[in-house]
Amino acid sequence: MRRILEPCAAAILAALAAGCSDAVVGSEDPAGDALVGFYEITGHTFDDTQCEIAGAEVTGGPPWFEIYRDPDYGSLLFVHTCETLTDCGGSGDAFSAAFLLRPDGDRRHAGSLFGSFATTPCRLMEIAGVITEEDVGVHVEIRRRELELELGAPCAPEDAEARAAEMTCVGLTTLDGIQLE
Predict the structure, then answer these.
(1) Helix, strand, or coil here: 66?
(2) Contact by Cβ (8 Å): 160, 125
(3) In angstroms, rounded to a whole number, what is the distance separating the alpha carbons of residues 72 and 114?
């Protein structure tokens, strides 16, 4: 299923930039409802050079993250970190991502969001997310890829999806967490 979101989702605005358009690829994932909640971070990595292997451990980062649905965006799941639990609750922060998940195996959910930046020159992007349910907690992987286009090139979310194989990695973030009661 494909959905065009206008205006940009708040998480995309926080993570990327204003002035984008989004195309979401995936399908409804009612099982994802069980993932919604607050999590204590037990592991957090980041690498801005590649998207295949978890990067360096993030130290001194936020101790919590939240997985939530915004009623304005249906089944779109948002993930963001929080300095305190009162900071959680559907508001954006320095790290945020959104994707529409679909079942992808027994305990795995995955999806991608494609978009375009109205910058000069245009940049196309993809945020691909995977949430794996583990025996205790969840493992979240969020990959960001971008492609800067030549001036005058088509710059729409559909172009991002069509040119996904040409994009280069601009970041892999992983989060491990235990859901709070």
Answers:
(1) strand
(2) yes
(3) 18
Distance CA 62, CA 81 (A): 6
Q: Tell me the H-state helices in the chain.
A: 10-15, 157-162
> What is the rounded CA–CA span in Å between residue 33 and residue 82?
20
**CB of 13 closer than 8 Å to CB of 34:** no
Lookup result for tokens 């959104």? 98
pTM of the predicted model, to two decimals? 0.75
AA identity, residue 139: H
- Tokens of residue 72, six digits: 């304005």
Q: CA 96, CA 128: separation in Å to the nearest integer?
A: 12
Q: Is the CB of residue 145 less than 8 Å from the CB of residue 160?
A: no
Helix ranges (H only) for 10-167 are: 10-15, 157-162
Q: How many residues does the chain have?
A: 181
In order along its 181 residues, the chain shows pLDDT tens digits of 222 222 233 333 333 333 333 444 444 556 667 888 899 999 999 998 888 888 889 988 889 998 887 777 666 777 888 888 887 776 544 455 666 666 666 777 888 888 888 777 889 999 888 888 888 899 999 999 999 998 888 788 888 888 999 999 999 999 999 999 7
Q: Is 35 strand, coil or helix?
A: helix
